[in-house]
Amino acid sequence: MYLSLGMILRIMNKENLILIIARGGSTKNISKQNLRLVNGKPLLYYVLNTSKSCKNCHTVVSTDSDEIAEYVKFFGVTVIKRSKTLTKDETSLEKIGIDTLNQLKSNKKNFKKCLIIHPHFPLIKKSTIQKFFKLINNNTKVVFGYEFDKYTKENFAKLQNKNQVLQEHKQIVKLKKIVCFDCRQLLENKKFNEKIYGMPLTQEEIFSPNNYHDFATLENVLNRKKIIVRVDGDINIGLGHVYNMLTVLNNIRNEDILIVMNQKKSLGKQKFFEHLYNVKFFSNNQEFWSIIKKFKPDIIFNDILSTEKTYVKKLKEFNLFVVNFEDLGEGRKFADLVFNPIFENKNKLNHEYYGSEYACVRDEFRVFSRIKQKKKFSKIVITLGGVDKKNNSHRILSIINKFKLLKNIRIEIILGLGFKHKEKIQKISREMNNRGFDIHVVEKVELLSKHMIDCDYVITSNGRTVFEVASLGIPLISLSVNKRERQHNFVENNKVGYHIDFTQKESDLVLKKCIKQMEKMENRKRFISNLQKQNLRKGIDKVTSIILTEYESKKLFVG
Question: Are 418 and 267 in contact (CB under 8 A)?
């Protein structure tokens, strides 16, 4: 046994033992599997490194390999040389556990609890290991790991003995390589207690590389960047930020992503749940910074409008790569990257990207081909975003109500997730339909593009939706409904439709005139021609490429 006096002194106050059993031989598919390099480190390293970080735990490696022993000693970990009789496939965990505990006992060291684990679980979490130990108590003497997605903890706990577990749940056999137990009970009975409980493990944590393809997959997982997304959505700022982040994330693959939202500004959280993202909420700054500390991200995306200098500078203290969207605040000066596609700024900083070429158009708008000029004017779509706080949708319908020529036109008014004026819209729609109009109120839209693709023009707020409509080659009437939207110049500058400052007194009259102009085919044809000059579908590719390239460049520089 490789156990020095210094090692003995270091473990004097430890109650829990983590026993890593690492054979030196080869498996059927992989030579020297436990020492095979994964991202430049032996497979054994990952479990070894995780176990060493666990408080009140002492780590021991049991092996028959001198090569593994030398590597482990270099790591500063106790090594116990296992006899050849205990290295066979059929050797039980009970026998290995008893042998190890007796060797340690001969060196005057006893442990209360022990976790046996193979290096074949490189993605096991520190928190999971700690949970194993917490489950061992006066009533529970043995805890096996099992796959969380297939077997419930309740059903597993009802089983009476280990044989029943192994017979009825074949998957458990694979997880036989991880078990936690009461040391005294095992030494006295020479076998695990019959009353067995289960510890749920995620599919990622139980991932065990058994061939070269698995090792390649493992490397991809270990190379994942941890990304926190700070995004808000409420009745004041709408849901554009939520959809923008969904677009960006759907085009950044194979990363570990956590969505963080202010509890009071969590409108749109369901959209992240639908896309299977993990979401956490905070109610104060302390809780937010606690999430940052616990998750330990590499990158943070901020889509929360203008940021403050103090906020971004504190993020940088965590050595985070900071990427901000739609940010005109002082904090943008201290970020690593800023994307402001809906603004134009000639005095931009080196790390800022302005203009429509960086617009992140949702995937659903990228798959459709550009529409051709329709011969007959037949459909208008009205969409004022996810919230429409001031119910401008009703205001638009009131203006359309004065156009007799639009009675033969299908008009779809799309209500967003946060729309609060449904009854008023339904009332005016019924009244207009009774007068001969063809108004359709549409809710819970899954594919907005589906409703737009066959329309003649769209009336929408002057936010990110403008880019999505334009990407389909459809003319617009864009309405600035707040001070911030008045700074968005895409429609005006590129002559792809009409823009109206809808906060002005005369704006109703202006909208009426624009609707009249949109009835003329020559006007719509001119806008479509200008739209065909735009290339909005490549924006998301540019943004993600810049983010990943700049991050890797900075990482290399810092490293």
Answer: yes
List domains and CATH numbers for the chain. 5-219 (3.90.550.10), 224-363 (3.40.50.11190), 371-531 (3.40.50.2000)
SS3 state of residue 115: strand
pLDDT per position as a tens digit, 37-72: 998 899 999 999 999 999 889 999 999 888 999 999
Q: Give the helix/strand (H/E) hosting 10.
A: helix 5-10
pTM above 0.90, yes or no: no
Per-residue tokens: 399: 């203006």
Q: Which residue carries 């735990």 as its tokens? A: 57
Q: List the one residue out of 350, 346, 352 whose CA is nearest residue 329.
A: 352
Alpha helices in 159-229 (DSSP H): 162-168, 170-174, 183-189, 212-222
**Of the candidates 19, 10, 134, the residue with the CA atom closest to the CA atom of residue 80:** 19
> Of residues 367 and 556, which shows the higher confidence score?
367
Answer whether residue 34 shows pLDDT above 80.
yes
- The Cα 470–Cα 361 span in angstroms is 10
pLDDT tens for residues 113-131?
Answer: 999 999 989 999 999 999 9
**345 to each of 90, 232, 339, 461, 550, how far by Cα in Å?**
70, 25, 11, 21, 21
Please tell me whether residue 405 adopts helix, strand or coil conformation: helix
Instruction: Write down the pLDDT at residue 540.
Output: 95
What type of residue is 300? I
What would the two tokens of residue 353 be? 């990207």
Q: Which two tokens stand for residue 260?
A: 């963080």
Cα 204 to Cα 217: distance, rounded to the nearest angstrom? 11
Give the whole-angstrom CA distance, residue 93 versus residue 179.
8
Say whether 339 sits in a helix, a strand or coil. Answer: strand
